[in-house]
Amino acid sequence: MTETVRDSEQQVFETNSGIPVEELYDAHALQGFDPERDLGAPGEFPFTRGPYAGMYRRRIWTRRFQVGFGSPQESNERIRYLYENGANGFVITIDLPTSYGFDSDDPIAEGEVGVTGVTLSTLEDMSALYEGFGPDRVSYALSIRPPVSSVTLAMLACVAEDKGVPFKDVIGTQQNDPFYQMSGGPLQTITQFFPLDGTLRLCIDNIEFISKHMPRLNWMVTNGYNLRETGVNAVEDGAFTLAHAFDIFRMARARGLDVNEFPRRASFFLSASMDFFEEIAKFRAMRRLYARTMRDELGATDPACLRLRFSVQTAGNTLTTQQPEVNIVRAGIEAMAAVFGGAQSIHLCSYDEGHGLPTEESSRIALRTQQVVAYETGVTRTIDPLAGSYYVEHLTNRLEQAIQTKIREIDQMGGMASAIRDGWLEQQINAARYRNQRELDSGRRTLVGVNRFTIPASEEKPVRVHRIRADEWGARRGDYLRNYRMHRDADRWNAGLSRVEEGWKANENMVPVIMNALRCQATMGEIHEAMRRAQGWRFR
């Protein structure tokens, strides 16, 4: 009885975004709601019920896994293991030096090589990552941003050529969000290695190259997941993600790209957090708001350019180090929200990720969780099964209105690029972090195992973690790169890097230029340095 009273006292009847939740919803909650206008049919405007007509009855979502540690060869081994166990898509995470465009043997990379992801310095590294697979068979999503994504896109194009795969058949996703690493600190800290204007130019170069040459390759316009991981709520998540996308689309139109062509393969990377119904409503509201904005404000008429497609990862910031097995439950619930929200691919965090890189055992459990949802629960038998729910439709409407209001606020500042330059986004993120910590400390929000339902430390089950071998990986990579440089043709290498500087100054699309430099055995770090020189940029 005591616990029941305590539960009643502690309940807060609002969503995590602060939207009030009534005791009961009935038809009065949907006054003004027009099913034909606001729902439509799956695969048709405004796409509230899903981007495709058949949804999961025709094709189950892609079951993605985050892979990336140490060398490309070791990461390839993990990919093969997961592929044999039923995974069919992989998020390739990149280590910290690579994510900022540095080679593994650069002094700045010491102690970080292969720790947070795989290291990619050469064309041969990307080839090793695809060993045993063609880029037309297995879908890789590279978790990276411009300027580095211009180099990895060029690497992918070279690998396709080497394997005899036509560009038109290349699948996967190249993340192309110039801002996602800017969500973790002041702009001047994030951009110290490459100027923002140059980053934005490469973002549009990537869009142009992919839309013209690789019609099956997705380019990820916004990494909303990383934004959500900073602690922002569902409304802020939806608004920041869409406002950023629309800003990039306007830049692409200014380049002369066709709004009825380049958005066809635009995709989004979103987070599914623990407020089950709010997350479902968020996905539905974002899809509807995207379609209306693309048609009514950006002028797109091709239905494929009005269709918001997204992959979902369960929220890393909901994982706990205490009682980590409970994270299996959290990830399963978040995955169900992604399914009810109509995701095109889903990646479940492994239960041990609060302690370190996931092991093969925890990765397999995450995969099996997706398979149980897909093949045992029956939730895929009909499309958008929550449509018409008084609560879900009311919440979808409220979220759409709140997200749109926030987008207008951003537009009044000149768009997301201006909001980031002015420090506004950083202020919003810091406020969200403070708000979340205050709610946990006060007990207003329950986190099982942390501020309620705890157990003594002595009862915590030890977690076996993947062993980090940073010193070993760094030493091996240093030997590899020294040997790589020693045996390349110095004249071809120099010509390739000179061509990078010339191409930049001539305002060419840099992807083919970088492909040529990679063929001349230039490394990731060397190509970045050549682009910095062309802009007169120095960071050290």
What does this structure look like?
The protein is of the alpha/beta class. It has one domain (59-459): Alpha-Beta Barrel (TIM Barrel). The chain has helices at 2-10, 35-38, 55-58, 72-84, 96-99, 123-129, 148-162, 187-190, 196-213, 224-229, 234-255, 276-296, 326-340, 360-375, 390-412, 416-421, 424-442, 470-486, 490-505, 510-519, 524-535; strands at residues 62-67, 89-93, 139-143, 173-175, 218-223, 266-272, 310-314, 345-347. An eight-stranded parallel beta barrel has the order 1-2-3-4-5-6-7-8, surrounded by seven helices. It starts with a helix and ends in a 5-residue tail after the last helix.
Q: Which features characterize this protein?
A:
alpha/beta; eight-stranded parallel beta barrel; TIM Barrel; 8 strands; disordered N terminus; globular; single chain; 21 helices; 540 residues
Overall strand count: 8
Helix content: 40-55%
Strand order of the largest sheet: 1-2-3-4-5-6-7-8
Q: Mind telling me the CATH superfamily name?
A: Methylmalonyl-CoA mutase
Structural class: alpha/beta
Number of domains: 1
The shape is: globular
What's the structural blueprint in terms of helices and strands?
Blueprint: H1 2-10, H2 35-38, H3 55-58, E1 62-67, H4 72-84, E2 89-93, H5 96-99, H6 123-129, E3 139-143, H7 148-162, E4 173-175, H8 187-190, H9 196-213, E5 218-223, H10 224-229, H11 234-255, E6 266-272, H12 276-296, E7 310-314, H13 326-340, E8 345-347, H14 360-375, H15 390-412, H16 416-421, H17 424-442, H18 470-486, H19 490-505, H20 510-519, H21 524-535
Parallel strand pairs: 1-2, 1-8, 2-3, 3-4, 4-5, 5-6, 6-7, 7-8
Helix pairs in contact: 4-6, 7-20, 9-11, 11-12, 11-15, 12-13, 12-15, 13-14, 19-20, 19-21
